[in-house]
Amino acid sequence: MTSLISTDAAPERRIALYGAEFADDPHGAYARMRAEFGPFVPVDLIPEVPATLVIGYAQARRILNDPLRFPADPGVWEQSIPETCPVRPMMESRPNALRSTGAAHTRYRSANSDAINAVDQHELRKVVERVADTTIAEFRDAEGADLLSQYAWPIAFRVLSALLGCPDEMGRRIADGMAKIFEGVDAASGNQILSEAVADLVALRRRLPGDDITSRLLSHSAALDGVEMAHQLVTLYGAGIEPLTNLIANTVLRILTDDQFSGDLHAGGSSVREALDTVLYTDPPLANYCISYPPHPVDVDGFLLPAHQPVVISMAACNNDPALGDQRIASNRAHLSWSTGPHACPARPHAYVIAETAITHLLDALPEMDLATAPGELVWRPGPFHRALAALPVLFPAVASV
User: What are phi and psi of 253, to 5 degrees?
Assistant: First the structure.
């Protein structure tokens, strides 16, 4: 049996997931990890915060479908983690479906699923189209734009705020707090900003209910209290703004640089949905997450995973596990980028609608768009969890707004 539990006599070499070197070439890093460690890799999420990164597809599926041995409750782990730890807000205990098990998970999950499933996808598509029109109009008379900050992020922010019934001012505060948390820079401050803003949103929709996810959560039979409501919204925003922004940006980048898509997309030879699925396989926006905390040491395929130490699923590495062989086909949506098991993303179809509509609208509006720099010159933001560009600059012929 191979142990991932280090000892003072034989300190374990751990792979850093937080630096620019990993961000620049994660797939090269995964290949080296696989050769040295196999499906379970000892990593540091940040300095002195160890975890086990799962890079084997079969092993990841078993873990994600085994909530008894791999619960999502970080209660014991976080007792040794300072409040100022940059990754703590992404991993700490919260009264929501992502960080609970058993009856509590069922209660939170049902409230969220019911509130999300009541969103009409035809109406959602119309909302995205309206937001896309407005957003493109803000830069289409120029000769270029940063599609990350000027398109992908505003789309995710504005559409999610509309779905949640969140006014712009509150939404900006929520987005600011969430960005700090994902970036791991001033994360404690971001957590405070986020908590205050979502509490304000809950108070607003309690006074003035509407046809939105927040109001439906408030009226749900789960009878969520104020604290629980705030944490449901933290989860929805966390799963919405940053990952959706990066899914849109990463897919546009793939379309502009991959001959499979760039040569014939406008002729109908390839679809935006196929490009989305390719990105979800190769560069999912949430590359490493789906965290669990085994309450006891667990043996998986001869590897002993430590108790109360985070087990992090690398969706990016698992999707590209060589052990899958010919099963890894882009058009097959069995990748793990939406997770699987009891914590699988409940908003998967909605995320597809938003991303596909936003990208299609952009390509129709700016058919002669091209990358403004060589792909190798693009900068990927460091961080243990996301696969995120720092910017996506493009050029296009100026089209005066009418």
Answer: -60, -45
